[in-house]
Task: structure prediction
Amino acid sequence: MLLTDLISKQFRLTELEKKGLERLKLVTIRDILYYFPTRYSDIREVRLVRDAVVGEDVTLFGKLTNLKTRKGFKTKIPMAEATFTDPSGTMPIIWFNQAYLAKMFHEGSTVKLTGKVSEGKRGAYLSNPEVENEKSLPIDLHDSLFGEGRDAALIQYPVYPETRGVTSRWLYHAVSKIFKSGALVTLDEYIPEEILTRYKLPSLRTALIFIHTPKNKNDADAARKRFAFEEVFFIQLARAEERRNYEQNRSYVVKNDMKDIANFVDRFPFKHTAAQTAAITSILSDMAGEHPMARLLEGDVGSGKTAVAATASYAVIMNRPDGKSYGNLQVAYMAPTEILATQHFENFIQYFKHTGISVGLITGSGCRKFPTKVASAQEPWTTISRAQLLKWVANGEIPILIGTHALIQKSVKFKHLALVIIDEQHRFGTNQRKKLVTKEGFAPHLLSMTATPIPRTLALTIYGDLDLTLLDEMPAGRKSIITEVTPPNARKDVYEKISAELKAGRQLYVICPRIDEPDPDKELSLEMKNVTTEAKRLKKEVFPEYEIGILHSKMSKQKKEEVMEDFSNNAIQILCATSVVEVGVNVPNATIIIIEGAERFGLAQLHQLRGRVIRSTHQAYCYLFAEAKSQKTADRLKALKTAKNGFELSELDLGLRGAGELGGGKQWGITDLGMEAIKNIKMVEAARAEAQSLIAHDPELASHQKIKTILENKKYKIHFE
Ligand code: ADP
Ligand code: MG
Result:
């Protein structure tokens, strides 16, 4: 068997299996080997009905009978019921809201159940257990547990992400067959030996055997560690390579009279924070070099990134191109939305009006230029045609151009573009940056800015090609948001307090975890608030005198913009929304936010949501309603009252609830296994240091051909693409 063989060549597949493999994107033998179990089930966990104790989570193995569906007597909640039997006794099972389960299993199905033993009127029962069909379990659990030749050898069995037709059992047997075929021998190690030794990582072959068929937990852990390290290592290699390539370019050298910069800074209507000053210093020192800067400025909403961007811009435009005595260098400043681009434009007018320097704005809806002869107090700028603007940008007369994505379209040509500032655009990456490099090999300095709170390990990985600066300090005198974790019985009091604020003219966000009513056949929790129902309820029962709008991701872009417009203009006072309001929304008069089902969000995400109400001079309030009553939930949410910034909260998320809390690695192009490495700062730092040193010593990867091939296959050129 060859690793490159198609699975269909080596296995006789049913139509169902073929379709399933297709869905999982498993094509070759190698794909199966790299399809890892998400966890291992331990048959020692299996308990007998006789020993199941009320209040505990148990795993049982046996048969289902008396399957039926009915509706709750009072609640009308649809439910499935069954009787469960193992050699020691029987126990009733109830699945609320999951009536479909009764149809998925037939009388006498052998299953493994995992769930909580509850106390009912008629004794103990198992409520809402997870259920796995025996046929999908990789081993014969019955024989292992109750049979004569109890198979003690296989205590842990792997559980894979399954799909119809491809069960854990199927995968387990497929992997076993591949192992037996000797195919593994043809698999070559690609991580340098000394790295494996240094971090005590198992070799590739051993790791593959360990990860699919571990004899014990240590084996499985060692294998997972290796593959997690490997993933971060390759991402770091790709980043280090990209960085090196970008640095091959020349950039405009930006050198300034520091007194002049200090004068510019002094004109701001506020004193820069120490963090802002430090950021500016790093940026100026980067840009004074011969090679382009690549720096990421991380800072919470309101930490003052725009002032840093403006100062960097000023430093750039005070320089002349390459030894010339006329003309000036140019800056492009890209924002994620038109509203934000326009706001930046207006801020820049304030910061630059004393300099006489022109600032341009380009968005989908038109172009503007400052200064103008026809200025008024309200509009110090004038509208100009796109063609005119492009002409002035191309001949260098407009040194600062602010805009949305329209800014980097092909038709926009700069004369001497020296600095590109990117605000909150995760997708602006290497490819786009490459396009900015001129024919003469000049690459602009890059200043990327983000308020997205992610842990340092994740930032070091996905932004491995950038230097990081953290604005970890809020401007002094800022009113902080009063944040309350509200128990369910305090709801009425909170509504009264909010009522007073609404009467005083403020506006309110209500964030719900869901868009619509849950599908009762699929969802466990009916309690979870949804936007549609909650908006109706608030209108009917709580705030009838106010206009309530809704906003969620399933609405069209146009509809969303209309609603936001209405909210901005105070035509709507209460906006009931999902977490979509996170991005690019800024309504200063909205000073209150309620977050329903707060325990369902990560701390960092809650912090970002709360950031919506920070923009005002009025006192802002955030009320977190949690459904779960546990002390742990309450403690976790309390961190929102004490943490200094979102980045600290994202670290807490990582520590408290694991990498899954970061919304999964997928949005960053990292697998679940790779995210395990993200939890471990030592591992990330090691992978990063090894990757950087490898690229530094062997930039062309001449003596690392296998690594070169893997990188060329682009598997790890993720995230920014
Ligand atoms: P960010 O882009 O990081 O969210 P902004 O740059 O928009 O933040 O700044 C938020 C607000 O804080 C703006 O009104 C800005 O004028 C103000 N600001 C910025 N820096 C300071 C500072 N050092 N002291 C006081 N106010 C500041
Ligand atoms: Mg900003």
